[in-house]
Amino acid sequence: MVYTDGSGYQGYIGAAAVIPSRDVQITECIGTERTSTVYAGEACGIKFALKSLIRLTLVRPIKEPVIFSDSQAALQTLQNPWMVSGQEYIQDCVPGHEGIPGNEAADHAAKKTAIRGVHHEIVPGDISHWVMLGAATTHRIRQSAKDTWERSWDKQKSRKPTKKLVTRPSKCTLQYWRYLHKATLSILIQVRTERIGLAHYLWRINKRNSPYYPCGLSSQTVQHILIEYPLYREERDRMWSQIKGFRRTTDVQALLNERSAALAISKFWIETRIPEQFTAVDPMATGTYNNAEEQHEQGTGLRTDTTAHAE
């Protein structure tokens, strides 16, 4: 009987095959998380087992060789070598970490090999044959893109309003914008970044002499129009009636971060006609696409197909 295992430790991947009855142990550090996966380590352990059995059979025939692995994923996918990278063949399964001596020995050997990689005990010749798997490559590309995004985000000094809403880039950030039509996107981007044709912003960029309304009582900001300005009470009440599952608040950051409020907020700005360019928005260009998520539909109470705008 041969027991196999794959293990990861501090970024290194180890694989092992152990034959307790013959006191045989085959181990190898197959790479790092940037080039391989623990799943591939499980598959490599099985490969080592097959090679060992072939060598032993040449010396003395083995009646019923059995290879054990505690990886259900390896057992399922190794039978179909066209599905995932790093696959061979498997015969039987044992539960992991259940005190089975052979399995525990394989686990210890795989982990010890990964630790060798961490401690830099692997000489350059040992890594010359490492192969970068597709899954690891995809992970590496995504991580690199995310790291670049975060570095760029941290260096940016002129995005304070946006950073109040998005502290760090993530997939959740992108979900907010999913399925939205271009006009809706444009309105929300201007509102969320506060780079919008209001008196306060125009004053900041030296395009207006004052940040205040003509009456001079208050600065014309996103916060004031969206939450406070009394002349837009009816439009504001309609906006809140369309936002489901989100308690009414005076916290403009919380409101702008609420995905279910996105369509209602954009509609509010169109109805108030501030800034004036929003008066030219084509209703057919707002809302969401036909395949918008059900959550987005239920969260706003607005129809998401384009025919809704014509009704």
Strand content is 5-15%
Distance between the termini: 72 Å
pLDDT < 50 runs, ≥5 residues:
83-92, 291-311
Give the helix proportion (percent range). 40-55%
Number of domains: 2
Strand order of the largest sheet: 3-2-1-4-5
SS elements, strand count: 5
Q: Report the major sheet.
A: 5 strands, mixed
Structural Rg = 30 Å
H/E order of the elements? EEEHEHEHHHHHHHHHHH
> Count of helices?
13
The structure class reads alpha/beta
Overall mean pLDDT: 77
- Approximate shape: elongated
What does the secondary structure layout of this molecule look like, with pairings?
Blueprint: E1 2-9, E2 12-19, E3 24-32, H1 38-59, E4 67-69, H2 72-77, E5 92-93, H3 101-118, H4 134-155, H5 160-165, H6 171-175, H7 182-193, H8 199-204, H9 222-228, H10 233-242, H11 252-257, H12 262-272, H13 294-300
Parallel strand pairs: 1-4, 4-5
Antiparallel strand pairs: 1-2, 2-3
Helix pairs in contact: 7-12, 10-12
